[in-house]
Amino acid sequence: MKKFILVFLFVLSLFSLSGKTSSPRYIILFIGDGMALPQRLLAEEFSRKTEKKPLLMNSFPYHATTHTVSANSLTTDSAASATAIACGVKTNNGRIGTDPKNNKLVSAAEMARDKGKKVGIITTVTLNHATPSGFYGHRKSRTEYYELGLDLVSSRFDFFGGGGLHSFNKLSPDLFTLAKQNNYVISRGRDALDSMKKENKNIFLASSEKSNMPYAIDLSGNIPTLAEITEKAIQLLDNPKGFFLMVEGGLIDYAGHSNEAATNMREVLALDAAVKKAYEFYQKHPEETLILVTGDHETGGLTLGVKGKKFDPLVLAQQKSSSGVFKSRFTALKKEGKIKSFEDAKAIVTEYFGLLFQSKNPKEILLITPAEQKAMEQAFHQGKLPSFLHNLMNQKAGLGWSTTSHTAIPVLTTATGKGAENFTGFIENTFIAEKIKELL
Ligand SMILES: [Zn+2]
């Protein structure tokens, strides 16, 4: 009997050991803000037509339909969903890392840090915006930017990268000064990527100190891509105890709010390029890495195909900039006196959107019809040309948008690597944090 008990205890200890080894050493979580199935499919079909390949994030073997409802609304905001995904608890819209009764919650990132892993947070928007702050912040409201900045600088996380830090509701002490006092090294611009050191805690600002990164479609100069920041973060965080890294494509949501299809799609493609960097790391450590790609909610009520017009993503291929950048250029040319009439505006319309006023091919997808030209001329005279043009692009691509807000439709979570098989079926967004915590 004694022998039997000893054997039993031995087997039990093997089980508990194998429990440890079943944990992924490296966890990389991607969140597309405002990215649900339609956004992923728009980018997928575009990629299939132009690059002859699907989106990497969609090709992962495990898929889970993910319910995004918050504690007080069928339509969540990014604060409640970030709290759900990061901490595993449904809370009211607007709250960061706190439950509806204002109790502080623990995020999977904090748990990873406390277990000795390195932690990184990346976003294309500001570092103390709702989604990233869900992983380190604990506040009643997402608008407490300064206070969330205080939570950031005291988080003891190893890497922050992306946009700047909002601090407009309070200015002193300056958040960057506090970050330096807490041993963060602050670097700026693509040129600084290579000089960041592994032994430091790093804050990397892609462009300005206070604002979002530019849209991927507008990216130029010394501003790195989301993929470049992700690749660098992985290099810096890699260590024998492992790491937890969250990467947010935060501007997908912005382009969803303004119903700009090409800009939205380029953001999803930029996120997929970042997923590729994680996947390259996974290929080197397939037995130890878990990659998850999810969204926090859908934005815009995007649909692929509208009455009278089939979905054709290729319409978006020639668009050169976001509506905002087009608008600035257009306004500048008007001020310089270079655009006085609608005739003068035609060249810049073709240059920025690929739209053609004439073509030998009557089936040319970017050819402007006489009725469209008439409406465009009217919009020009009303000073509404920029918004008219991105709406025209939507019509020509057969894309419908039902709102400029968030919708309640579920998002998709895809997974590959160690522990990925847990992410199937119809799950709550809270399940992501619960499972990550369990796997840590
Ligand atoms: Zn939003």
Question: How would you describe this protein?
Answer:
The protein has 440 residues and is α/β, with parallel strands linked by helices. The chain folds into 2 domains: 316 residues, Alkaline Phosphatase, subunit A (3-Layer(aba) Sandwich); 86 residues, no CATH class. Helix content is 39%, strand content 15%. The protein has 15 helices and 14 strands. The strands form 3 sheets. Strands 5-6-4-3-7-1-8-13-2-14 form a 10-stranded mixed β-sheet, with helices on both faces. The protein has a two-stranded antiparallel sheet with strand order 9-12. A two-stranded antiparallel ribbon has the order 10-11. It is globular. It starts with a helix and ends with a helix. About 2% of the residues have low confidence. Bound molecules: zinc ion. Zinc ion binds next to α9.
